[in-house]
Structures are given as structure tokens and as C-alpha cells.
Amino acid sequence: MASNLMDNVEDVSLGLDLQGGFEVLYEVQPLEEEGDTEINRELLTDTVSALNARIDVLGVSEPNISIEGDDRIRVQLAGVEDQEQARELLSTQARLEFRDVNDELMMDGSDLVEGGARQNFHGETNEPIVSVTVDDGSLFEEITRDISSRPPEERQLVIWLDYEEGDSFEEEIMKEDSKIVSAPRVDEIIPSRDVMISGNFTVESAQDLAGILNAGALPVELEELSLNSVGAQLGEQSMDLAVNAGFVGIALIFAYMLFYYRFMGAIAVLTLSAYIYLVLVIFNWLNAVLTLPGIAALILGVGMAVDANIITFERIKDELRSGKTVMSAFKAGGRRSLSTIMDANITTILAASVLFYFGTSAVQGFAVMLIVSILTSFLTAVFGARLLLGLWVNSRILNKKNRLFGVKESEINEL
What we know:
This protein is of the alpha+beta class. It contains eleven helices and 13 strands. The strands form four sheets. Strands 3-4-2-12 form a four-stranded antiparallel beta sheet. Strand 7 (118-121) and strand 8 (128-133) form a beta hairpin. Helix 8 (232-285) crosses helix 9, helix 9 runs antiparallel to helix 10 (326-358) and helix 10 (326-358) packs antiparallel against helix 11. One of its GO terms (biological process) is protein transport by the Sec complex.
């Protein structure tokens, strides 16, 4: 069981606060040329889908993208090393356009085969390039016929990424961080559907460009409102501190239960151990991401489970003090404590549900772990503990051994 527990712990996906990464909050705005576009739920959902496709290019596992409010999207990427590359990949519009040197539009991304962009290498220079496929080969042939017939100084097909009204080829080509991907010279007609985009690419940058072109242009503009970055070392330190704090807290709880409730405390330790194991298994099964608030909720769940045990055990001790037999005390204590435990846990589940519905990602993670913890505690701390304790009581081994329940002989019949 110990090795299986460690396997489940290793499989749990860690949030950015535990393994490093970044979180960015975007405000969604309509495109300038479509200023009257209404930002609705459908448009936000389409934007999330486009962002997910771009994140696939980064190779990030378990990204967390959530819609907040009416016009905001929060992106959490754990384990990202090059955060600037990731931010640029997420926010660029990726509107590919082919224009002449006079900035007249010749064709755009809608004229390309969907998903047809790929990283390749130049046949002569072996430099990284991006290859795209035109949907209509005759269109590209006509464009190259037009440009190749112009004066030599105008025989360039300028490939833009995110061209905006007011941009010009003459100004943009001089900038270091230019929107112009490349401006190849066209001296002859090219009767082909395959277009080669060359530039100062590395293999990685060419792969990124091909990836965002295949993901498609964003249907909106994203304005970055806030950025929260966590270094890998800081995340590792947070993880170590949280785990150590959890071990200390749980060890103190176990020690208290054994000291104060004796045999019943030993039953509680067994069921609480099973509870922690089951919570991690369920959390892993849900493919949820564990964060610092999630660890806090797990430890809080241990406290809730212990609280259920304490209520039951105290009821049993009260019945023993009144002079009842161990069998009668066990049945009466279990029956009278159940409604109290149910009320306490149901109200906590309701509060956690509200947190999940109205909260942001970190708060939602806390709420999910808390709900899972409470439901699991019903299986272990309530029914599991009663089942184990009931087996021992029914065996009659514990008859007239009130001290094993933490009740002294002098306390009996005092109520």
C-alpha cells in the first residue's frame, strides 16, 4: 500500500505554486475591425479553445484556462521555463497576411489549408522555414504573376503577422521587432500550392509559428491585466514546506487520538490513514491539479474527519460513564452522533460549493479538495471506523475493558 500511495502521489499534477510557472489574467476585447462584436459566452469559449490549441505547441501538461466574469480569461501554466515565449504565443493574434510593398492585401490566412502549416528546412541553405499550403493553387499563381510583372523594386511579397491599419512596409521593415515575418522576392510565376515562409528562424521559432498558424487566429484581442510568476525553486520550497507542515499536523492529530481515546484512537489512526490514501487516489483519478490551497484543504479534511470520530467516541464514552455495557454504549453512541456529523459536513459541503461556483482558480482548487475530503471522510472516518470498532465490540473481547476506551472506573455512574 505504501508503494501504491507513492505512485499516486507522484502521478498527481502539481499547480504552478508547487512546481513553478506563471498565471496571467486577460481582458477580452473585440478586434478593432470588428468593434461592434459582442463579447458573449460563446466567443469566450472559442477563445479558450484557441488558447488550448496554442498551449499544445508548448507541450505544457495540465494547463488551467478558466473564464471569469463576462470578459476575462485566466491562464495558468505550470512548469513553463520560457515564460516570455509562452506569453507571446498566447497573446499574438496570428493573423497571417500576404501584401505587396504598397500594403495592399493579396491573400490572408483564410486562403490557406486549415492545419497545413509545418516546420521544414530550405532545400538549398538547410535553414529552418515554415511551409504553408494554399487552398486554391491558382490564386497563388495569379498573385505571383502580378508581382513578378511589376518593376524590380516592387517585386516583393510581404508576409505580415498581425498587420494593423496604419502599418506600412517601409517603416516596419526597419524595426528590430517587426511584424513582417519575411519579404521574399518574386521574379517568376509560381504555379504551386506550397508557400515557403523564410526568415531568421530557429527550429523552435519555426515550430512555434507553424503551431499558432494551425491553431488559428484568436477571435478577439487579449489585454494582459495581471501576471503572477512563480520560479521553479520557489515552488519546490513551497511544496517542501507544505508537505512538512502536513506531516507534523497529521502526526500531532494521530498522537492526540491515541493518547486520549486509546483503542478507539488506534481505530481512528487506521481509518484516517486510509482516508488520506483514498483522497489522493480520487484526486489523481479526477486529473485535478494540486496547489497549496489544495494541500491546506486536505489537512483541513483530516481535521473534519477527526471531528467526526471525536463526536462518535465522546458519545460512546458518555454512554459508558452512565453504566451501559460496551455493546450498548457503542450502539447508542453511534446512533446519537450520526445526525450531528451529517449536519456539520453538509453545511461545510454547501460552503465549499459556493466557493467553487464564485471563486477563482486557486479558490476552486481548495473547494474541490475540501468536497472530496468530506465525502471520503464519510466512507472512512464515519462508516469505516464504525465498522472496525463494531467488529471488535461484537467479538466481546472489549467487554468490561472501559479503560481501553479512555474511561476510568471512577467515572462510571457519575452522570
